[in-house]
Amino acid sequence: MGWFTLAVLGAVAYTVWYAVSIAREYLRRERPNNVFNNVLLVTAHPDDECMFFGPTLRTLQRSGSHIHVLCLSTGNYDGLGAHRTKELQASCQVLGVTCTVEDTLQDGEKWDPEAVSDAIDEFVKETKWDAILTFDKFGVSGHLNHGNVHNGVRYFAARSARPYILLELESAPLLLKYSGMMAIVYEYVQSLMGVMLSSQKESVLNNQKKSGLSNQSVSSNRMVAVLEPNEAWTAYRAMAMHRSQLVWFRYLYLLFSRYMHINTVVVRHPSQLM
Ligand SMILES: [Zn+2]
């Protein structure tokens, strides 16, 4: 490889790093609108917590939240349930969260919303949770149980006497899912465009207001959670605790997945669950 090629590659790498740093700094300043004391993360399998939710966990921790992971199966599809339960406990220790593993639901089988809701209901009696964090209906990877957990959490929250705020992790389209750190730049550009559009919308609304047509205000219910480089290292260390799952394609996942760097989460208030 010639000096010129090396110089071009170095310039490209520096430009990407610089763009990611600026984007991260901008997005980091966007604080969640709500501060939650106790957040319950409901997952389907040991390793979901660090493969998908790392940036959200860290962002909530920075704002002072205590987080508990309720994993609804031992991930016993290959008969490794007991081993994977221990791996989850080690991962949670690295992430600085506590965890409980349920063993009534079986990995890979369809879970009814009622069964998921019962498992959550049994657990939440002891602690008062302000918010429940979980998958959206696409479940990030499209795994059957991820979608089942989403449906079950929705079912539980809609019927609960206590109001819960739901935090649903957005599933990204395939190309964005494997955009790695560049997903931070993408969200930055999206955010800037959103600011421009909302200021345009606000001026339209102000004009409408002046003319007596509307008194609406612009509001957002989306939370962007970004990891610092040293925090991304913690997410990698947590993933390393799931040794039984570290097959070759998982290393590719760790290299290219946006979820090791950034999460976008939709915040749903109780009135939106009816
Ligand atoms: Zn999973």
UniProtKB/TrEMBL annotation:
EC number: 3.5.1.89
Keywords: Membrane, Transmembrane, Transmembrane helix
Domain of life: Eukaryota
Membrane spanning residue stretches: 6-23
Entry's Gene Ontology molecular function annotations: N-acetylglucosaminylphosphatidylinositol deacetylase activity
Cell division keyword on record: no
Protein name, per record: N-acetylglucosaminylphosphatidylinositol deacetylase
